[in-house]
Structures are given as C-alpha cells and as structure tokens.
Amino acid sequence: MKYIIVGLGNFGGHLAARLTAYGHEVIGVDSSEDKVDAVKDKITHAVVMDATDAQAVKNLPCKDADVVIIAIGEDFGASIMVTAIFKQLNIKRLISRSINKIHETVIKAIGVDEILHPEEDSAERMAKSLQMKGVIDSLDVSDDYNIIEVQTPKRYVGLTISETKIRQDYNINILSLIKMEEKLNIFGVKSKSKKVTGVVTANTVIEEGDILLLFGHIKDINTILNLTD
User: Which residues does the UniProt record annotate as the domain RCK C-terminal (predicted)?
Assistant: First the structure.
C-alpha cells in the first residue's frame, strides 16, 4: 500500500518507519529539515515541505495514496489547515491525529474518516495494565471486551489449554502463548523479547514463564485475574 504521512515527529516518524519496514511505500512530509533528516534513511521518501501550502501539496501523489495520515502533534492551526487541504483533494482514506477535544471537534466537522488519539490510547493502556492484577498489556476491542497479556498463574503451569477449562469456567479464550527470549541487543547486552507461539490447540502445554494472550468480557477477565494462584 502507499501512504503519505504529514508530520514526522516522534509519533509520525515512528509510524512511517514501521510501515516502511512492513514493506509499504511511505512518503513522509515535514516542514522541519531536521525531522526529515532523522527518518530519510528509514522510509521510502522523505520530503521537506510546508503542507499548509495547498499548491505545494498538489505536487504529492495524493491520488495514488491509499491512506493519508496527518500526524502533526504540536501546531493546532497547522494540523487543521493541512487536514482541510487534503480533505479537498478527495483522498481515499484520510486519518488525522487529535491534539485535544476542541481539535477533534474541528477535524470531525471537516469530515475526517478516522481520528487518532495516540497519547490518550497509550495512557489508557498503561492505566489498565497497572490497575488490573498481573496484566502486562491490553487492547480494547470494544467497551466491554478486551484482549490482554497476563503472566500465567501458577495453577495453569504444566496443563494443556483444554485442561485449564478457562473457556468453560470463565468464558475466556486463550488466543496464544507468548514466550520471552533472551537476545543480545545492538550494544551487546542481553535483553528479553516476546515471541508469539501462534495459534494454540487444545493440546498445547502451558509452560512456566509463558504469557497468556486472553480474550473475553472485562468482568470475566477481572474474575480470573483476582483468583489466587
């Protein structure tokens, strides 16, 4: 797919680099030469451009882009102006980052397809993982359902997925197991990284140190988390 990302700060720059690493074509745009220089070797194309200039924006291959993401995170006015310019160009899919509630109201009125809340989403995930016992990370699927990563309770170590009876007893599905592997980082220091084992079967054995990837209703997840080992 082809992406145009406007705003190459911490969020936009990282997003552009990750999408490029996944094999997509990414054009990154920013008015700051320093920000463009920081990512130019990590993405397909990096362009120094003032995206509030409608004439300059027309030089971008907007019609060929599958998605345009406005990732500007500091300048309220510039974000609104750039969003409005791209909206007028009949982009296939336009996504804009929300800086605050007022900003979100304005870009909704412009008619943006999707709105991002990276800071709020990150804070929400951290708050949830901190207040839920044993939770390493979580993802809201809806208001009522969650996918969570949780350290395996001792009572399940050595059992197969079927033997845990988690689905029968708590209406929760074990989606996968995550194992921690030690690897040397670029500094030659050992660090742990996650390895997902893939789709589990009823006969998959849970080992000590495994992380369970669970899906279920929040109240059911809280029930199982509050049980003692």
Answer: 148-229
